[in-house]
Write a structure and sequence with these properties.
By secondary structure, the protein is of the alpha/beta class. It is built from 12 helices and 7 strands. The structure holds adenosine monophosphate (AMP), zinc ion and fe (iii) ion (2 copies).
Length: about 300
């Protein structure tokens, strides 16, 4: 059996509707899926109905961008800021009045602020035809408009600056413009891992650090992983992040095995997923990841469910 605990729908920056996602998952033999849209669970209801229809088990999830104050980075201007990381949350309450959902709402409000500022910044930098309305219209939901929608708008409106869209030029748009070292980078919320754990963990939400190497390393070499990650993982575990996405679709098998060992050494639960985004990440396969050989074992689910307490 195949499971996939990290996927995105058109309710954030994926291209598939939840129904399409569930249909594709059923087709390739996925038994359990978690839909983890950025900062929103508005996709949950449609996904729950579709999973019922196709006979899939669904875990209600979300992926949030939070600050890790245990790790600081010095910016080009010399300021020291907390590292921004992605955290997956599973078994989330979907009731709108729940404290966890209130936290999500605050993240979305801040995302809207970031998006308005990003439009201004891109306009100043020469992307003059780009408007917020244009970017929002590319997204199928207003809930979680993100940088991949901005990237698409940049290709559609300003090929004279960014060129034609290929996998390579798409990545370059993030390196040169939208990524944390890019010219148009605007930070999002200051919300911390601790705030989210406090709002979710007492209610059975289980947190797992998403794509840990993307968050915490620069080269992802064996040496850097061995040097940096044990300390990072034990610190996260001590702050209530119980899981680590050891089986990540963006890494190779050898790295996954290394991360699995470090996850176990830290006393954390290994989780895993593809980070499927449909046409927003053309090289990532649902259930199979970027290299096509991802296999997240079922046993992950037992530990994850037990962690709910
Ligand atoms: P946002 O939620 O608006 O901050 O955008 C974050 C999303 O942008 C991630 O989930 C990825 O889908 C995408 N993204 C971020 N950095 C990169 C990158 N270097 N290359 C490709 N996609 C990226
Ligand atoms: Zn994304
Ligand atoms: Fe992510
Ligand atoms: Fe993701």
């Amino acid at each position: 059996m195949v499971i996939d605990l990290h996927t995105h729908s058109c309710f954030s920056d994926g291209s598939d509707t939840p129904t399409e996602l569930a249909r594709k998952a059923a087709e390739i033999g996925i038994s359990t899926i978690a839909l983890t849209d950025h900062d929103t669970s508005a996709s949950h209801q449609e996904m729950a109905e579709a999973c019922d229809h196709y006979g899939l088990d669904l875990i209600a999830g979300v992926e949030v961008s939070l600050k890790d104050h245990a790790v600081t980075r010095t910016s080009s201007s010399g300021d020291s800021t907390a590292l921004s990381v992605h955290v997956l949350a599973y078994f989330i309450p979907t009731d709108e009045q729940h404290p966890f959902q209130i936290q999500l709402r605050e993240l979305r409000t801040d995302r809207e602020r970031r998006n308005r500022e990003l439009v201004e910044r891109l306009n100043e930098l020469g992307f003059r035809a780009l408007t917020l309305d244009y970017v929002v219209a590319l997204a199928d939901s207003v809930d979680s408009v993100g940088r991949p929608h901005f990237a698409r708008a940049m290709f559609e409106l300003h090929p004279e600056i960014v060129g034609e869209r290929t996998d390579e030029s798409w990545n370059r748009v993030f390196t040169d413009w939208l990524g944390s070292s890019g010219r148009a980078y605007i930070p999002k919320s200051e919300k911390t891992i601790e705030e989210f754990v406090a709002a979710g963990a007492p209610h059975g939400v289980v947190f797992s650090i998403a794509h840990p190497l993307v968050n915490y390393t620069t080269t992802s070499s064996e040496h850097e992983i061995a040097t940096v990650m044990p300390g990072v993982l034990s610190s996260l575990r001590d702050r209530g992040v119980l899981g680590c996405e050891a089986y990540y679709g963006g890494t190779n098998e050898q790295t996954r095995r290394h991360m699995l060992q470090l996850t176990r050494d830290a006393g954390m639960i290994p989780t895993g997923g593809s980070d499927y985004h449909g046409t927003y990440k053309t090289d990532v396969l649902l259930g199979r990841g970027r290299s096509g050989d991802l296999h997240v074992p079922d046993e992950v689910l037992v530990a994850l469910r037990n962690a709910r307490g």
